[in-house]
From TrEMBL:
It comes from the Eukaryota. GO terms for molecular function: ATP binding; protein serine/threonine kinase activity. This is non-specific serine/threonine protein kinase. Keywords: ATP-binding, Kinase, Nucleotide-binding, Serine/threonine-protein kinase, Transferase. ATP binds at residue 118. It catalyses: L-seryl-[protein] + ATP = O-phospho-L-seryl-[protein] + ADP + H(+); L-threonyl-[protein] + ATP = O-phospho-L-threonyl-[protein] + ADP + H(+). The keyword Kinase applies. InterPro entries: Kinase-like_dom_sf, Prot_kinase_dom, Protein_kinase_ATP_BS, SRPK. Its EC number is 2.7.11.1.
């Protein structure tokens, strides 16, 4: 059996702008896709233990790929490159996974742009999606750009062999502040960039608090920079030429 490995991206975190014509690192002008998904608003966690029937499944683990035994009742929904969901989202690459979701880059064939499709496990908690929906639609503050909070573009459900899976569609983002800082040879931001990012972050946090929510996992790795607008102009072929095609690994 073959499973696609991760294509680097982030989804549900705060998004900030870099000042026009300024770059924190040489990588800042390019989309950067991280292997791991993150939770913008943490909820009570619970461990997922394999059942007696799945605990006997033996295979060689693959780095940065979800555990195969979680494809069970209540678990992940199996996805293949090229699948269509909701009659519009064509899966073109795998972005990552979390305990309660797998995350995919898709081409929206109606709006002709790239989106992120987060497919939750059948037993996942919908709290994060509900919180993001309340914060992003509509924005009650005119002080922040609407893209600084991850916008919920669409929501739908998939009925599969492992149960009913809530799906969340949002916009992709690029490198996190942690990764941008590591990419700098001196490990520091330019002072004008640091000032601009700090102002934007304070504005967004003030807005979140005004809506009676608290971000429980705020650190540089959960603060992301936005993609350039020309990313959507890439064809799938150009995307693969720039960032590589989906990599399949044989599960032994």
């Amino acid at each position: 059996m073959k499973r696609p490995c991760s294509f680097p991206i982030r989804t549900s975190s705060l998004r900030l702008f870099l000042p026009h014509c300024l770059s924190a690192t040489d990588k800042a002008g390019l989309p950067y896709f991280n292997r791991y998904s993150s939770r913008a608003f943490s909820t009570a966690s619970k461990s997922r233990a394999p059942t007696a029937s799945t605990s006997r499944v033996l295979y060689e683990p693959i780095e940065s790929v979800e555990r195969m035994e979680y494809y069970q009742k209540g678990g992940y929904h199996a996805v293949e490159i090229g699948n269509y969901f909701h009659d519009r989202y064509r899966i073109v690459h795998k972005l990552g996974h979390g305990t309660y979701s797998t995350i995919w880059l898709a081409r929206d064939e109606i709006s002709n742009r790239y989106v992120v499709v987060k497919i939750c496990t059948a037993d996942s908690d919908p709290l994060e999606t509900d919180v993001l929906s309340q914060l992003s639609e509509p924005l009650k503050s005119s002080d922040i750009d609407k893209t600084m909070i991850p916008m919920i573009l669409d929501r739908f459900n998939i009925q599969g062999p492992n149960g009913n899976h809530a799906c969340l569609v949002t916009i992709p983002a690029r490198i996190s502040l942690s990764e941008a800082k590591k990419g700098s040879w001196i490990g520091l931001f330019q002072i004008n960039i640091a000032h601009a990012l700090a102002v934007q972050l304070a504005t967004v946090i003030q807005y979140i608090h005004s809506e009676d929510f608290i971000h429980r996992d705020l650190y540089r790795g959960n603060i992301l920079l936005q993609l350039q607008s020309n990313f959507d102009k890439l064809s799938t072929k150009q995307l693969y030429e720039l960032y590589g095609e989906p990599e399949l690994k044989l599960v032994n």
